[in-house]
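One chain is below:
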Amino acid sequence: MTTTNLIDLRQARSAVSNDLPGLLAYLAQLVGEPFRFARVSYGDELTLHFGDLRPARFPKLKGRPYGAYVVGARGSAWLLKSGSEPLVLAAGLDLGHVPSGLGTPVSKEELERSPLIQPESRVLSVAPFVVTPVDGYGLQVRFSDASTLLLIPATPEVEEPGDEALPSLADWELSSPAGLLSAGPGLVWSFKPSPGPPSHP
């Protein structure tokens, strides 16, 4: 018997704890979307862009469009494995001793020039999972070209006495036309809907 979870993408959900089925329901909006491109920003943050391309939001980013759906690694280690070639790229994970069959490591620059995921490949599945050593949510995304993205929450840094507390980063996020889904840190997630279209008199 199949169960269906209906969600209202107009309602905010804040700090939902230990709700893996609810998180999966919010991620379902990404299934079927075509992959457009990948970017690695400062701090090794990976972003994957999907769906319709949108023009840059700020003038200084002119010529750098973004996808309607963007998965951002934020505070997670990540691994991206090609389905069409024996290539793999990771940040925050030691690939010094790549297990045989996993692939040949490539650089971040190579990823942007020649993405490991074939453009127009569709998202086949999204699967959040619990990473017990760090008590956080990981994410696996599978593509129609057999590529795979794996996001694994990083171990939280221990704060030294006297350190100024910095705002905590989400482990990963999904930005969509409906709003922003954030997972972590820890076994919590939240959803902030996009502001609705302006009302006309």
